[in-house]
Amino acid sequence: MKKIQFQDLKEEMITIGQLLWRKDLASGLNGNISRRIDKDTILLTAHGTCLGNLETKDILAMKLDGELLEEGSVSTEKLLHTEIYKNFPDAKAVIHTHTTYTNAYFLANETFVPRIFEAKFYLGEIKGIPQTTPAVTDAGPVVEGFKKNNIVVLRDHGVAAKGENLFDCFLLIQTLEEAVKTEAISRLFEGPGARGQGPRSSENRDPGPRTPDPAKKYKLFSQEQINDIVKLVNDDAQMKDLGEKTKMTMDLAVKLNETGRTYSFRFENGRITNVGHDDNAEFLITAPENVWRAVFNREIDPFVATTQKKMNLRGDFAKISKWYAPCSRVFELWHEVPVE
After folding, report:
1. Cβ atoms within 10 Å of 180's Cβ, excluding its own
2. Which of 157, 201, 215, 238 is most buried, by CB atoms within 10 Å?
3. Three-class HEC string of the chain
4. CA-based torsion, 162, 167, 168, 171: positive or negative
């Protein structure tokens, strides 16, 4: 078979493999890396290779239908990689590896909720996906997980991350591993029994009082939904306290990509004093319909969606971060207006 060269992309994969190895995010012959070449073609590491010692011959070109374009045997996780690329046309890179602390944590827990701010921004809440075979034979649950987050955990197995490039994937895997290490060390400092209830999760957080009918679902970006959001924010005692303490005064707009429909909110000390349709607000969040639906239905954290580029934030992120606490409360209240 004719030898096919994609030297630059292969060198990029070799560099990332070495980085994963140096940072103890890969070991032995575990893990695999892929890179999209075009719509229907990827590069994937070969079976039985060491990510810390890759050579160009260890990286093979193949079609998403499984046809090999170079001689060799690709990773046993080819189904995992090809299904990710088939279902997410924007994915340009995928890393799958077996990180020690993350694997250990999910042997004992089903959900991980970071407490460090950076990890909150980039990861959000992560729920482990059951894995019952040494290699992925059913990629459906993984695909569903990637609809909500750019990193997923396969319990008893490892982690996988997708992104616009391999370094983005590396950062997600490293961020999760370091966050889990921090969690483990914090428990040592707290001593036995200090936390009692185990790791925090969205199920045991107190969302505060609900005003709208909890069984009701709204039309996305309908006036009724916006009206109830305003009522929830302005009636919420916790929001009032946070808004006054942080002097949260700004203009925030949200926009639906498909229709261009925009709602802008004027906040004064955390209270919404005016609603308009100005997309020239100081801060503008834009996203497609499927992402907004996931946000309002408590499937995606808006901060995480922004850092993972599922949503676009226009404005000074450093400035809005000083209002992290009241903004987080606003986003929690959004969940009280689920959409159809």
Report:
1. 24
2. 157
3. CCCCCCHHHHHHHHHHHHHHHHCCCCCCCCCEEEEEEECCEEEEEECCCCHHHCCHHHEEEEECCCCECCCCCECCCHHHHHHHHHHCCCCCEEEEECCHHHHHHHHHCCEECCCCHHHHHHCCCEECECCCCCCCCCCHHHHHHHCCCCEEEECCCEEEEEECCHHHHHHHHHHHHHHHHHHHHHHHHHCCCCCCCCCCCHHHCCCCCCCCCCCCCECCCCHHHHHHHHHHHHHCHHHHHHHHHHCCCEEEEEEECCCCCEEEEEEECCEEEEEECCCCCCEEEEECHHHHHHHHCCCCCHHHHHHCCCCEEECCHHHHHCCHHHHHHHHHHHCCCCEC
4. positive
Q: Which two tokens stand for residue 335?
A: 């969940």
- List of domains in the chain: 7-190 (3.40.225.10), 223-334 (3.30.1050.10)
Dihedral pair phi/psi, residue 141, rounded to 5°: -60, -35
Predicted confidence (pLDDT) per residue in 248-299, tens digit:
999 999 999 999 999 999 999 999 999 999 989 999 999 999 999 999 998 8
Q: What is the pLDDT of residue 203?
A: 39
Global pTM reads 0.82
Residue listed under structure tokens 């060390």: 185
In the numeric block, the tokens 């990193």 are attached to 151
* 56-63 CB contacts, 8 Å cutoff, 24+ apart: 56/7, 56/10, 56/11, 56/14, 59/10, 59/13, 59/14, 61/4, 61/6, 61/37
Tokens linked to 278: 């100005």
